[in-house]
Model the fold of this input.
Amino acid sequence: QVSLVESGGGSVQAGGSLRLSCKVSGSSFAIDYGAWSRGAPGMQREFVASITNGTITYYADSVQGRFTISRDSSNSTVYLQMNSLKPEDTAVYYCHTSIRKRNYWGQGTQVTVSS
Done:
């Protein structure tokens, strides 16, 4: 059973930084695609960032220049470095991946940014 577990969320003041981690377990396959999405309270989840083959990255316009996604294949972990956080970044952040044509999502980690 494939599982994704996020960690690193918490509360931070505007302008601060957090680093989210997503540990993928239960699969021997490499993480060719890793991504982060978020869901603000009362809103649909939105795409935040993705990384393909550890090199090709995409970011939502709202986080471009502030967030950095990366992958560590050795420990099957996808990271999201979040800098210059804004109150509007407040949401539950979910990591997700695709393995053998199946999508897997983590349970999410709460990020709260206060002014």
Q: What stands out?
A: The CA atoms of residues 92 and 110 lie 4 Å apart. The chain has a mean pLDDT of 93. The first strand starts at residue 3 and ends at 7. The chain has no helices and eleven strands.
